[in-house]
Amino acid sequence: MSAGTNMGTGTNMDAGTRTGTGATALVESVRAAGIADLAEKVVASERLSPEDGLRLYAARDLHAVGRLANFVRERMHGDRTYFNVNQHVNYTNYCNKFCSFCSFDRLPGQDGAYMLTPEQVAQRIEAQLDKPVTEVHMVAGVWPKIPYAYYLDILRAVKRTRPDIHVKAFTMVELDQIWKKGREQAGRETLGEVLADLREAGLDSCPGGGAEVFSERIREKSYSNKMSGERWLEVAREVHRAGLRSNCTMLHGHIETPEEKVDHLVRLRALQDETGGFQTYVPLSFHPANNEWSHLPGPTALDELRELAIGRLLLDNIDHVKAYWILMDVPVAQVALSFGADDVDGTVVEEHIYHDAGATTPQEVARAELVQWIRDAGRLPVERDTLYNVVWSADPEQAPAGAAAPVA
After folding, report:
1. What is the model's pTM?
2. In which order are the strands placed within the sheet that holds 80-84?
3. Residue 351's pLDDT is what?
4. What does the pLDDT average to over 10-28?
């Protein structure tokens, strides 16, 4: 399914607007929405304040907010829209965090509970050897009885099976647990020592999940067994200091307030100022099926577009914003490419965490289908690797293969 070029947004800009000659028109186009002064800051590349962020959440004209986000998106990336050929491996659903929003977790012995052996992980990788997969995204539940050696063994199993694959694995929550096991079983006193072991075994970068919302109010209500937002940021800081890149996320569409979301984004921005280690911001949509929060409606498509747009506008120091198509209908992901997003993730292959929560998107898509989705949205498809080096481009002049993805 495709949305058609620029469906319902009217936000794509011509080259004049991108380079500044149309900046006055942009400011005037959002004046009636009451955010012309924010548009002036955006045009001047001035950082938006937390108060500005709250105004963007309160603005009734979503298209006006989208116009500002699209201005930044096109100033940085033009029409370039990134994807990769990847696969997911969720190695276990054993988990003792008992998050209210989670539909994936199980206790050992429960129906549907599983933990893949290293050999089974390798089989998942082997099953895709006929496809040009460049990344495996490997995340799971958190279970304290999993031994330290297991994490090293599954990394080695992946690399033995496909030596050139990039392993993006372990959220900050998982890494915190892995560090505890490393200290207990291998004498690794610091997270830095654990990260060195993981890198030697095959870890190449980290995803950004597990952050949820950096709000103690929400943590106490929903995921009190999970690390605090401050600890998540501490682990991310150590990941970046170890030379690993990561993504960052925010779970939205449940009981959070605009103030809590702005605080979360500003804290991500502050850490990025310090480390520069975040590659991509990915707003994650709450899915209400099969969990303790099933009585909540979940976010609408308009909510998803607003989160992407505000993320693009507040996170001025993070290069990429991803519309994770697996969480939203494909047409919404296409429209999101005119609301600040410049990435749609990848081919995926066998994702369980969000499908257990009721996601109805496909389990995987073909590379050609992703390319067509992007073209139908009026954008330029660019295949990337995990670290945003160009693998293939529909226009080699704008994004030459073998070069780093250009960011203005």
Report:
1. 0.91
2. 343-346, 80-84, 380-384, 390-393
3. 41
4. 65
What is the strand order of the sheet 135-138 is part of?
Answer: 86-89, 135-138, 166-169
Are 325 and 54 in contact by the 8 Å Cβ rule? The answer is no
Query: Residue 87: which H helix or E strand, with range?
Result: strand 86-89
The reported pLDDT for the residue numbered 336 is 98
327: pLDDT confidence band, cut at 50, 70 and 90?
confident
Cα Dmax for the chain: 64
Residues facing 284 on adjacent strands: 251
Phi, psi of 152 (to 5 degrees): -70, -40
**Host H or E run for residue 284:** strand 278-285
pLDDT at residue 364, rounded to an integer: 56
Nearest to residue 383, comparing CAs of 371, 373, 372?
371
Q: What residues form DSSP beta bridges with 390?
A: 384
Give the integer Cα–Cα distance in Å for 282 and 279: 10
State the pLDDT at residue 3. 38
**Residue 279: its pLDDT value, please?**
98
C-alpha distances (whole Å) from 6 to each of 154, 403, 406 are 42, 28, 23
CA atoms within 13 A on the CB side of 105: 15
User: Would you state the structure tokens that stand for residue 148, as one six-digit string?
Assistant: 């330290």
Whole-number Å distance between alpha carbons of 234 and 152: 22
- Residue 134 is given by DSSP the state -
Coil vs helix vs strand at 374: helix
